[in-house]
Automatic annotation (TrEMBL), chain A:
Naturally occurring in which organism (per UniProt): Nothobranchius furzeri
Protein name (record): AP-3 complex subunit delta-1
Gene Ontology CC annotation, any one: terminal bouton
Locations listed in the record: Cytoplasm; Golgi apparatus membrane
Protein topology in the membrane: Peripheral membrane protein
Comp. bias intervals (Basic residues): 756-772, 862-871
Keyword Coiled coil: yes
GO biological process assignments: anterograde synaptic vesicle transport; Golgi to vacuole transport; neurotransmitter receptor transport, postsynaptic endosome to lysosome; protein targeting to vacuole; synaptic vesicle budding from endosome; synaptic vesicle membrane organization
Pfam family, one: AP3D1
Acidic residues bias locations: 792-809
Residue ranges, compositional bias (Basic and acidic residues): 654-690, 740-755, 810-840
Transmembrane segments: 281-305, 888-905
From TrEMBL, chain B:
CDD domains documented for this protein: AP1_sigma (cd14831)
UniProt record similarity statement: Belongs to the adaptor complexes small subunit family.
Membrane-spanning ranges: none
Source organism of the structure: Nothobranchius furzeri
UniProt membrane topology term: Peripheral membrane protein
Key words of the record: Coated pit, Cytoplasmic vesicle, Golgi apparatus, Membrane, Protein transport, Transport
Name of the protein this chain belongs to: AP complex subunit sigma
Superkingdom field: Eukaryota
Keyword Membrane: yes
GO molecular function list: clathrin adaptor activity
Keyword Membrane appears in the UniProt entry: yes
Classification via PANTHER family: ADAPTOR COMPLEXES SMALL SUBUNIT FAMILY
Domain AP complex mu/sigma subunit: 1-140
Length: 1125, 158
């Protein structure tokens, strides 16, 4: 064995190590691939050896090759071998290789579970650390489930190095195994207050990451983060927390108010931090901008904070002006950051940014694409009815100039985004928009043909007034289709033809010359278009055909109609031969139909009506989510079998069928219930009735005017006829410009008309109100749309479910982490503790059976849970409020402990001391400790005086006035206050009732709270420890003035000196003399009563005092002290 | 942070760290695409760019490009600082680092990165504690290598 090792190590000396490999690769620049393939062969040999050192060296080289892009997945098992080496040197290399090469589908990962678990619990912290680091790169759902509990334990490891890593990796575990979040969360939260700053910052990182995705679940942590923000010294942590608050404030606007102050205190620190970063950017001049950068960072946060406070618009205005300086700077990084911050402001304060349009447009000319893209983002939010055309015109210029298709495509999508935003809100002239779309079709090599097409369809369908124009434009497009067919790839510009054909077919009644268009649609070149477009062509050719027939109806000369059918019959066979099934099917159907029609035509039969009936009715747009929102009717169970499920003992040849029907329910597609015709009719009738009665139902009838309601008296403004003499049929000529001009003229004319009207009005009214319309720049409202636009709303199913849809991608891993963290943990949620996987799998079916056995219990539980969930949904908007109420509850519970402190007679809470100088005064010092998260202020202390004891109040105040406590209490702070009481008789214990009133100030508001308490004045508290000499003591006892009494302390078994110490401490006695098993003690009351005790080891107390009542009470109290222990 | 790449002016990858599991083929494609985009940019241009659904923050140090892919909500400046810290760490560890250091000791560079960032999050903001952890782990690594050849050393150590 030893020989083998030695041999191995000698071999190793001749092996290539990593350095040799790297050097070799550098020396073989010309034939790198060949050299590496020989290296890989060598590595394969090395991996076959037993020596782990050789193996590790080989794996290290493989890791390097992997980086160069060579496939090393074949060595996965060897990597695992090296990982499991007991030596740190090799383990480190193994884990590094694993973290670089493994991914979720690497199958050997399964083998690593136990090895990783072993390393996690290794006594060497670097073993654990290396395992955690590796795991963070290749953790799979299985690993996460199996190791979650181990990692959770590591979060409380003694070494901060491990704790830090364990906390960070938990985030990855949560993503892969969301069930672990709830059980692990309390511990994670604990780590926010870890003494080690590294662990703390790790915890902040993880929670901030989690909260950023699902902020509402973390609202309850706001006070904790608030505390961290004010106490943390780590700038990185600070920035994370501030960003987190940025995400939380929109959910709880009251937070914003509270944050302003600490944030203003922090701005200087953040500024220094950013100036340091800018300094690293190695531009000294940049540093002078660091104020701005800090500013900028705060803006991004403050924006969300200030949304609730309208007064901030002035400071926002200032910010924007400062940002302008940044954007105008020559440094590109600053420019970029400035634009980025602008876009954040734009979201909430669009007005203040809009004035810098010139600057933004200027940035569009920048050489740097990143900056241009940022500027584009800004433009999106800056448009208004007034400037839309101008901005889009600028963008169109850029489209022409832009080099590189990616940027041009970006411009294209932005133009469409800008125009179509919020339901075409800013478009006043749809003819202009259609011509813009048509112009965009001339872009070469764009990938967004589909987008343009869908816009065309959308506008043509939803804006009824534009159809005439749209159809004319589309007919031109179809006529010039050859210009677009160059690029036939999917999503290329030819997609536009899909829209063009459909629009021309569907709204063919508006076509000037349907015959011409029909001819254009049936050209042989069409056969080169993608299949789905051809299919639309064929179908819409049929629609056009119907229109042609209709237009010829009543015409005695039937040649045109016959020409049309002949054209169809001539051209359609081309499509019948199409390889595309859809095209073929449609073409042959229509061909047969046309042949039949032609026969009828020859017999002079009127057919147009029948043919038109084929395409009667209007198609309305359907909202994209309509299908999802169809409510499931009562009594329809989508999971139930419609027919009896096939029995399993069917003959073999029926098997496939059985499989098919079995699979079906998985899709859970809404099935059509079998409803007879009558029922359907009845339902339809009822629905119509309901819609008619429902004032909120938006009918698709042309009379409804949904848009531009803000336009005053839109009906009274004469609709300007657009002169269609604009040369429509010249392709390649930008028409949109002409529309811009036309629109300008129109607006001017309108303005003039309006002015006239206004003047008239003013003459009539003569009141000052007319002033508002006085000249000046036209405001948004003044611009009226070119024609009455009726944007048809998308159809929704009746009684659609309320919009609770989740916009987020269902594949988003963070969605699974949307978990309520405030619910108490159920037993079933505990993390799987280490156990063998195989055993678990075996167990589960058995468990299932058990589950069935106790099924009588099960449904009940479930239903109550469901109910709870339902309720939660209902109270969604009240949830935030409840959250705060809960916090209040916690506050009250804290207060209860406060009260408890009083009751329990804890000296820490208050102390009563007699005042020797004045026999009738007692000083009560009370320590107030604020244990809640809120600020306590305006505390007032009051006690209901008794005949015997009175609270000393300042002169001039009444006997029931309360005393103001001269301090306020921030969370977690304690302070002491003293109160003086006047006592007449001290021989009896007393209880005084009192109240403490204070104001609790937290995020949302301040509330007035009251706390009742009792002050217990014991007789002991009137005693004052006074030293006494044994001879004086003896004299006192001999005097004979003292009355005696004695007690026995039951069940006390403590050392004698403890007993004495206790009496001294609790009851203010001093030891006079101690002789073996007995001791004499002395104390004096504030009114001069002597109290003498003789305590024996047999635990009996003989006492003498000149006041028997006092003595009795003191002895009772002593007895009580000892009965408590 | 999604991933970090180090590549040279000539478009040779020097270091790659992926914080989300990605298939090998996708990795290669992304690296190639990103290197092209970044290398095509002129030196005066800004350090940020949008790429797919990610934001790319890069900075050039001598002949090496340090390039980080971050998500929409992450802060660009902070990412630049992370890059800078990493460079400083490498500098401290190797003593005025150059590209060759990273090429020949690429595993060390990874170890440093792993101590600095984990799962795409900053692990320790203090340079000192990162270097300390590396040094101690290195000590641990060197020691067994020593006793591998001389048994006497191992008895002392254990």
């Amino acid at each position: 064995m030893a020989l083998k090792i030695v041999k191995g190590s000698i071999d190793r000396m001749f092996d290539k190590n990593l350095q040799d490999l790297v050097r070799g690769i550098r020396n073989h620049k010309e034939d790198e691939a060949k050299y590496i393939s020989t290296c890989i062969d060598e590595i394969k040999q090395e991996l076959k050896q037993d020596n782990i050192a050789v193996k590790a060296n080989a794996v290290c080289k493989l890791t390097y090759l992997q980086m160069l892009g060579y496939d090393v997945s074949w060595a996965a098992f060897n990597i695992v071998e090296v990982m499991s080496s007991s030596k740190f040197t090799y383990k480190r290399i193994g884990y590094l290789a694993a973290s670089q090469c493994f991914h979720e589908s690497t199958d050997v990962i399964m083998l690593t579970t136990n090895q990783i678990r072993k390393d996690l619990s290794s006594p060497n912290q670097y073993d654990t650390g290396v395992a955690l680091t590796g795991l963070s790169c290749f953790v799979t759902p299985d690993l996460a489930r199996d190791l979650a509990n181990d990692i959770m334990t590591l979060m409380s490891h003694t070494k901060p190095y491990i704790r830090k890593k364990a906390v960070l990796i938990m985030y990855k575990v949560f993503l892969k195994y969301p069930e672990s979040l709830r059980p692990a969360f309390p511990r994670l939260k604990e780590k926010l207050e870890d003494p080690d700053p590294g662990v703390q910052s790790a915890a902040v990182n993880v929670i901030c990451e989690l909260a950023r995705r699902n902020p509402k679940n973390y609202l309850s942590l706001a006070p904790l983060f608030f505390k961290l923000m004010t106490s943390s010294t780590n700038n990185w942590v600070l920035i994370k927390i501030i960003k987190l608050f940025g995400a939380l404030t929109p959910l709880e606007p009251r937070l914003g108010k509270k944050l302003i102050e600490p944030l203003t205190n922090l701005i200087h620190r953040i500024y220094l931090f950013f100036s340091q970063i800018l300094h690293h950017l190695s531009a000294i001049t940049l540093v002078c901008f660091s104020w701005l950068i800090a500013f900028l960072f705060f803006i991004t946060v403050l924006i969300s904070l200030s949304s609730g406070m309208p007064n901030h618009s002035a400071s926002i205005q200032l910010c924007v002006q400062k940002l302008r300086i940044l954007i105008e700077d020559s440094d590109q990084n600053l420019k970029y950051l400035g634009l980025l911050a602008m876009s954040k402001i734009l979201k909430t304060h669009p007005k203040s940014v809009q004035s810098h349009k010139d600057l933004i447009l200027q940035c569009l000319d920048d050489k740097d694409e990143s900056i241009r893209l940022r500027a584009l983002d800004l433009l999106y939010g800056m448009v208004s009815k007034k400037n839309l055309m101008e901005i889009v015109k600028k963008l169109m210029l850029h489209v022409d100039k832009a080099e590189g298709t990616t940027y041009r495509d970006e411009l294209l999508t932005k133009i469409i985004d800008i125009c179509s935003q919020s339901n075409y809100q800013y478009i006043t002239n749809f003819e202009w928009y259609i011509s813009i779309l048509v112009e965009l079709t001339r872009l070469e090599g764009t990938r967004h043909g589909h987008l343009i097409a869908s816009q065309m369809l959308d506008v043509a369908i939803r804006v009824k007034a534009i159809r005439v124009f749209a159809v004319a434009q589309m007919a031109t497009l179809l006529d010039n289709a050859h210009m677009l067919t160059g690029n036939t790839q999917r999503n290329g510009i030819c997609e536009v033809l899909y829209a063009a054909a459909w629009i021309c077919g569907e709204f063919s009644e508006h076509l000037e010359n349907p015959m011409e268009t029909l001819e254009a649609m049936l050209r042989p070149k069409v056969a080169t278009l993608p299949g789905h477009i051809q299919a639309v062509y064929v179908q819409n050719a049929a629609k056009l055909f119907a229109t042609v027939l209709k237009s010829q109806e009543g015409n005695t000369d039937s040649t045109t109609a016959q020409e049309a059918s002949q054209l169809m019959i001539d051209r359609l066979p081309l499509f019948v031969q199409s390889a595309n099934l859809e095209v073929q099917e449609r073409a042959s159907c229509i061909l047969q139909l046309v042949k039949y029609i032609q026969k009828l035509q020859q017999k002079d039969v009127e057919v147009s009506e029948e043919v038109c009936a084929l395409f009667a009715g209007e198609l309305n747009p359907v909202a994209p989510k309509a299908q999802k929102k169809v409510p499931i009717p009562d009594g329809l169970d989508l999971d139930a079998w419609i027919n009896e499920p096939p029995s399993e003992s069917e003959s073999e040849d029926e098997q496939p069928k059985a499989i098919f029907s079995k699979e079906e329910p998985k899709h859970s597609r809404p099935r059509h219930t079998e409803v007879d015709e009558k029922e359907l009719a009845r339902r339809r009738e009822a629905r119509k009735q309901e819609q008619a009665n429902n004032p909120f139902y938006i009918k698709a009838s042309p009379s409804s005017q949904k848009v531009y309601q803000e336009t005053p008296g839109v009906e009274h403004i004469p609709v300007v006829q657009i002169d269609l003499s604009v040369p429509l049929k010249v392709p390649g000529l930008p028409m949109s410009d002409q529309y811009v001009k036309l629109e300008e003229e129109r607006r001017q004319k309108e303005r003039a008309e309006k002015k006239k009207k206004d003047k008239k009005k003013r003459k009539e009214k003569r009141s000052g109100r007319g002033k508002k319309h006085d000249s000046g720049p036209e405001s948004e409202e003044d611009i009226t749309p070119a024609h009455m636009v009726d944007i048809v709303t998308e159809e929704m199913p009746e009684n659609a479910l309320p919009s609770d849809d989740d916009e987020r991608d269902p594949a988003d891993p963070h969605k699974a982490l949307d978990i309520d963290l405030d619910k108490p943990l159920a037993d079933s949620e505990k993390l799987p503790v280490r156990s063998h996987r195989a055993a678990e799998v075996l167990k589960s079916p058995a468990e299932d059976e058990e589950g069935e056995n106790v099924s009588s219990l099960e449904p009940k539980k479930k239903s109550s849970k469901e109910k709870r969930e339902k309720k939660k949904d209902k109270d969604k908007d009240r949830k935030v409020k409840m959250l705060f109420d809960r916090r209040l509850l916690r506050l009250i519970s804290v207060m209860l402990t406060f009260i408890f402190l009083f009751y329990s007679f804890d000296r820490k809470a208050y102390d009563i001391q007699g005042n020797l100088q004045d026999g009738s005064q007692v000083v009560v010092s009370v320590i107030f400790e604020n244990k809640c998260d809120s600020f306590l202020k305006s505390m007032e202390f009051n006690v209901l005086d008794s005949l015997n004891s009175k609270l000393q109040r300042p002169e001039g105040s009444g006997p029931h006035d309360s005393l103001t406590i001269p301090f306020q209490l921030p969370p977690g702070v304690s302070n002491e206050a003293r109160f003086v009481f006047t006592v007449q008789s001290i021989i009896m214990p007393q209880k005084l009732k009192g109240t403490l009133t204070f104001i609790v100030k937290n995020e949302e508001s301040s509330t007035h709270e009251k706390l009742d308490f009792k002050l217990h004045f014991t007789c002991t508290s009137y005693l004052i420890t006074t030293p006494c000499y044994s001879d004086a003591f003896a004299k006192l006892l001999e005097s004979g003035d003292l009355k005696s009494s004695s007690i026995r302390l039951e069940g006390v078994n403590m050392p004698f000196h403890h007993l004495l110490a206790r009496i001294c401490f609790h009851h203010h006695f001093s030891v006079v003399e101690r002789i073996d098993s007995c001791a004499s003690m002395y104390s004096r009351s504030i009114q001069g009563h002597h109290v003498c005790l003789l305590v024996k080891i047999t635990v009996s107390v003989d006492a003498k005092c000149d006041e028997p009542t006092l003595l009795g009470n003191v002895l009772d109290e002593i007895k009580q002290t000892f009965s408590q222990c | 942070m999604r991933f970090m790449l180090l590549f040279s002016r000539q478009g040779k990858l020097r270091l790659q760290k992926w914080y989300t599991a990605t298939a090998e083929r996708d990795k290669k494609k992304m690296v190639r695409e990103l290197m092209q985009t970044v290398l095509a940019r002129k030196p005066k241009m800004c350090s940020f760019l949008e790429w797919r659904d990610l934001k790319i923050v890069y900075k050039r140090y001598a002949s090496l490009y340090f390039c980080c892919a971050i998500e929409e909500q992450d802060n660009e400046l902070i990412t630049l600082e992370i890059i800078h810290r990493f460079v400083e760490l490498l500098d401290k560890y190797f003593g005025s680092v150059c590209e060759l250091d990273i090429i020949f000791n690429f595993e060390k560079a990874y170890f440093i990165l792993d101590e600095f960032l984990m799962g795409g999050e900053i692990q320790d903001t203090s340079k000192k504690s990162v270097l300390k952890a590396i040094e101690q782990a290195d000590l641990l690594q060197e020691r067994p290598r020593g006793d591998y050849f001389s048994n006497s050393a191992s008895t002392h150590c254990s």
